[in-house]
Design goal:
313 residues, Rossmann fold, alpha/beta, Quinone Oxidoreductase, Chain A, domain 1, 31% strand
Length: 313
């Protein structure tokens, strides 16, 4: 099979011809239609995760995917060859990722794709959607609350803003001016251009009575801690990007939560949110497999609107 892979850190990536994996008991083999690109993927290929988990070379990156079930391992129920699915690669090591024509994954980590979107768009949904749900549930928004979202127009932010707005929250989207219209389309009531001045000062000026919560999808602990000064006591702060100084926040009387992805068992519920119209899929930029490196470089720049996807078709 064709796969995008690296042979070692610091070496150029390329298209490899590698053996098609064989599904073990409890696994399914997926013929991949598209692979979602996440910040974690760029983190992995840069070598920045090598001290935290095992890496196997040639290393195929990618944790999100969509495609068609091509074969079933032993002891797999609930799926059949030909089913269109989306899901997440869950392995204790990096290297057997989704940027390949085929991937073997646990049957428990896939779900029938949303019926209202195509497979390419479905590939960009799993990790971002499940992480947005995590942040939403950590904040527990109430109608009328003012909630600041850092990284509001990225992959996770796209879904979080929609969920918050649907709950009646007044969302302040922190993003570049070029993305302000996109943020409002998602349901944000206001946007703050972080290139136009100090974000905290701008929000303090427009909301002198304070705000109710902060969600961080950027990993800017300094800005999050300063924004916490504007949050009403007993308010909430959540971050999926490592942007929490928990002791400092809790000392201010705030509840701080690391909003990691909710379990993959929630994939069917995520699909229902899309099919019911409660979530619109993120703006998606599609790259062919031989340009996967460009997609990873763009993701590493941290200036992506919506989602990036690598197509295997």
């Amino acid at each position: 099979m064709r796969a995008y892979a690296i042979d070692s850190f610091g070496q150029p990536s390329s298209i490899h011809e590698l053996p098609t994996p064989v599904p073990a008991p409890g696994e399914v083999l997926i013929r991949v239609t598209a692979a979602g690109v996440n910040g974690f993927d760029a983190f992995v290929v840069s070598g920045m995760a090598k001290d935290f988990m095992e890496h196997r070379f040639p290393l195929i990156p990618g944790i999100d995917f969509s495609g068609v079930v091509a074969a079933l391992g032993a002891d797999v129920d609930g799926f059949a060859v030909g089913d269109e699915i989306f899901g997440v690669v869950e392995r204790p090591y990096q290297g057997a990722g989704s940027m390949a024509e085929s991937v073997a994954v646990l049957a428990a980590s896939i779900s029938a794709r949303p019926t209202t979107i195509d497979l390419v768009h479905a590939a960009g949904l799993p990790t971002t959607g499940l992480t947005a749900i995590s942040a939403f549930e950590a904040i527990k928004p109430e109608s009328g609350q003012v909630i600041v979202v850092l990284g509001a127009t990225g992959g996770v932010g796209t879904y979080a803003v929609q969920l918050l707005a649907a709950a009646g929250a007044r969302v302040i989207a922190v993003t570049r001016a070029v993305n302000a219209d996109y943020a409002r389309e998602l349901g944000a009531a206001e946007s703050v251009d972080y290139t136009a001045g100090d974000v905290v000062d701008l929000i303090r000026a427009s909301h002198p009575d304070g705000i109710d919560a902060v969600i961080d999808f950027v990993g800017d602990a300094g800005t999050v801690t300063r924004l916490a000064d504007l949050v009403h006591r007993e308010g909430r702060v959540a971050s999926s990007g490592g942007g929490l100084e928990e002791e400092a926040l809790e000392a201010r009387g705030l509840q701080a939560t690391r909003a990691n992805r909710v379990p993959v068992t929630r994939l069917p519920a995520l699909a229902r949110l899309v099919d019911s119209g409660r979530l619109r899929v993120a703006t998606t930029q599609v790259f062919p497999l031989d340009r996967a490196g460009e997609a990873l470089e763009l993701m590493a720049s941290r200036h992506v609107r919506g989602k990036l996807v690598v197509s295997l078709d």
